[in-house]
């Protein structure tokens, strides 16, 4: 049963130095055309009733609110459903946030990345530290009561002290939710090239582990529940949409390169505009590749996604009971009632733990 819908907006003002998300600089006419096709794609699916809607990118806040309104008008959203938009501080202001509220968006996720001026420059962000904070304060002023901030750590040359400064600024703002990802050096990015040329270097593993530990400790002290590997929330403010991914629930993925999971099939949409538009012109879903998720595969997804939810974990079945017990003996999982959860030790090597289930 489809619960949520993810809508991908593949446009950005500029490409950040570390980012390999599917996004491009664009003209006004590109946006208009794309929105028309998004609406057509939505109409290719049955009318579901959504518990969550997520505009992700790229930079969804690059679109006019009128366009977002037209897209939302096509969707049936449950009463009190979560409607999130990812925003880049450089593309928003008080009026835009007001408009978002008016069209039914009730959660914003702001791409802050860091509050450190120098780090923002290195990352190639268009916004500076005060613009990041300003975006947050304007969202509040416009009436948003559910705000998430996106940060990164393990940045080039970042010290533990600098991370602590970022955390302090973050907790001073008191968002309901925050995500914090360790920098991934993605092939094809400016950062990756600089790494190869020796102009930047990766963070030492021990320092990265210390940083992650600090985030967990300080997050806890500030009142946040560490509910997923990279996600923290005040009680009751866990992200509904993203949590549904980890609960292995079905959702539609709409837009260029979007992934979805619908009627037992996981799929990924076309990644080239021409193919995406051609498919839709032919009345076809613009799917590039898909995988039928049989019962066995569904079980595997259950563990590798479910263990990410640190308080919920998984209830194993069949042969996985033995595997969970083995991982418990290694102190990588712990058992609470009939659920298995990642331990702190497991958390630091989570990907190795997940590999055991594949
Ligand atoms: C689509 S972006 C968020 C919204 C908006 N595009 C922005 O950047 O302001 C999703 C988030 O993924 C994270 N991210 C992107 N590239 C990353 C990388 N190479 N390593 C770690 N995190 C990354 C960033 O925290 C980013 O805010
Ligand atoms: S981090 Fe966000 S703003 Fe920067 S290029 Fe990636 S999607 Fe665009």
UniProtKB/TrEMBL annotation:
NCBIfam families: hemN_rel. Residues 1-222 form the Radical SAM core domain. This is Heme chaperone HemW. Keywords: 4Fe-4S, Chaperone, Cytoplasm, Heme, Iron, Iron-sulfur, Metal-binding, S-adenosyl-L-methionine. InterPro entries: Aldolase_TIM, Coproporphyrinogen-III_oxidase, Elp3/MiaA/NifB-like_rSAM, HemW-like, rSAM, rSAM_sf. It is found in: Cytoplasm. One of its GO terms (cellular component) is cytoplasm. GO terms for biological process: porphyrin-containing compound biosynthetic process. PROSITE patterns: RADICAL_SAM. Belongs to the anaerobic coproporphyrinogen-III oxidase family. HemW subfamily. Coiled coil: none annotated. PANTHER family: COPROPORPHYRINIGEN III OXIDASE (PTHR13932), RADICAL S-ADENOSYL METHIONINE DOMAIN-CONTAINING PROTEIN 1, MITOCHONDRIAL (PTHR13932:SF5). One of its GO terms (molecular function) is metal ion binding. Probably acts as a heme chaperone, transferring heme to an unknown acceptor. Binds one molecule of heme per monomer, possibly covalently. Binds 1 [4Fe-4S] cluster. The cluster is coordinated with 3 cysteines and an exchangeable S-adenosyl-L-methionine. Its main location: cytoplasm.
